[in-house]
Specification:
Helix 1 (24-42) crosses helix 2 (51-58). By secondary structure, this protein is mainly alpha-helical. The mean pLDDT is 87. The strands form 2 sheets. It has a two-stranded antiparallel ribbon with strand order 1-2. Helices cover 56% and strands 8% of the residues. Bound molecules: zinc ion (2 copies). One zinc ion binds next to helix 4.
Length: 144
């Protein structure tokens, strides 16, 4: 849905929608930056460039390049060294917030945590169910 908001880059008021999250002026600047990055990275000899090399060559901010990657505008399958650091260990990644190793670790931690929570819930449920069961039995007993 469209909403009127201020541009996160320059503070101008603009209409935000799913295609545009900055104002017209900044959007244009972003498009130009994208063209620059894309032109550079598309060259065969630059395909394996790292983020720093791209930043140096294009003078486009890393943050903006990351934005293009996260939006899927720069296909990192084609540019294996272009990515952003894993939140946990700093390894270059292209999707999500964590590298595969850290994601797996987190999943295990979460699983262990969930199991504990589930177990507590189960105990609670069981004691609740026992009460219901007892009431139910009494009710049935009366009917029989
Ligand atoms: Zn702006
Ligand atoms: Zn990691």
């Amino acid at each position: 849905m469209d909403e009127i908001t201020s541009c996160p880059n320059c503070g101008d008021i603009f209409v935000k929608n799913k295609f545009r999250d900055v104002c017209q002026k900044c959007w244009k600047a972003e498009e130009e930056a994208y063209e620059k990055v894309y032109k550079f990275i598309r060259k065969r000899e630059n395909r394996a460039a790292t983020m720093q090399q791209v930043v140096d060559a294009t003078e486009v901010e890393e943050e903006l390049i990351l934005k293009f990657i996260k939006k899927g505008r720069l296909q990192t399958a084609q540019f294996p060294n272009l990515g952003y650091p894993c939140d946990k260990c700093g390894k270059v990644i292209q999707t999500g917030k964590l590298c595969a190793g850290c994601a797996e670790e987190l999943r295990k931690e979460l699983e262990a945590h969930t199991a504990q929570v589930e177990w507590k819930k189960e105990i609670e449920e069981r004691s609740k169910n026992n009460t219901y069961f007892a009431v139910d039995e009494k009710y049935r007993g009366r009917n029989d």
